[in-house]
Every structure is written in C-alpha cells, then in structure tokens.
Amino acid sequence: MSKMIFVNLPVADVAKSTAFYEAIGFVKDETICKGPEAAMVRWSDDINFMLLSHDHFAQFAPKPMADSHATSPVLFALSFDSRADVDAFVEKAIAAGAKEGHEPEDMGFMYSRAFEDPDGFGFGPMWMDVEAAVAAMNQPQAEAA
C-alpha cells in the first residue's frame, strides 16, 4: 500500500461540505465511509479529506475542537500546474461559498491565493517553479547598511 494521508475535518454539515468539495473538484469516494455522519472526498490518489460531523469527529479527537472561523488551526497548501489553475480553483471555491482570504501574491517563482471553506478551514492554492524558488532562496542576502 502506498503512503496516504487522510485529513479529518470537523464540519457543521457533512452534506453541505461534501457538495462544496465536489464543486471545487474533489471526488466523493464512498469506499470506506457513507452516511450522514461522515464523507470522504479525494484530492488525489493519496490525499483524502474525511468530512466528519462534530459528534463523529469528537469520537477520534478527545481535545476540544478549534473554532476555525475564529482561529487558524491549519492551512492546506495545494499545488497546481499554473497560475491560471490556481485562479480557476479559487474562483470555483468562491462560487461554491468560500470566502477569499487575501489578494493574489506573486513572487515570480511562486504564485498563491487563499480562501476559507464554509467551515472556516484555510486553503492556500499555489503554483511554484521549484528550481527558481531554490535559486532565489540560495542567493546571498544583501548586507545590511
């Protein structure tokens, strides 16, 4: 079995959250969970999001849940093949009910945007030219005057 990640998110309404994630390109997968308390959506073959009702999530995590509308418990940085793909993804998310997080940031070698899903979880879709990013980070810093 390949290495996989299952991101467990407590959501207010499993059906509403599932519809949101499907609208932005995730694929619903009922292989290991079905029903009103949990849904699984796939980002890729190895990255899955488990959308769990608050009560169901509490069965796995004994600590109090963070209020993701008031705090930043996590930021998911999802990579894309181009700036245009980042823009298209964010526009889909906004059309599906997400809240835009900030204006686009373009560093030349990296382009990113941000949004919050309906439950307040943060996403940072981004495109990066890895070789250019490594080169930029390895350049000597200018001496302070």
Automatic annotation (TrEMBL):
PROSITE patterns: VOC
Gene3D superfamilies membership: 2,3-Dihydroxybiphenyl 1,2-Dioxygenase, domain 1
InterPro entries in the record: Glyas_Bleomycin-R_OHBP_Dase, Glyas_Fos-R_dOase_dom, VOC_core
Pfam family membership, one: Glyoxalase
Start and end residues of each VOC domain: 3-128
Domain of life: Bacteria
Positions of transmembrane segments: none
Protein name listed in UniProt: VOC family protein
Organism: Sphingomonas chungangi
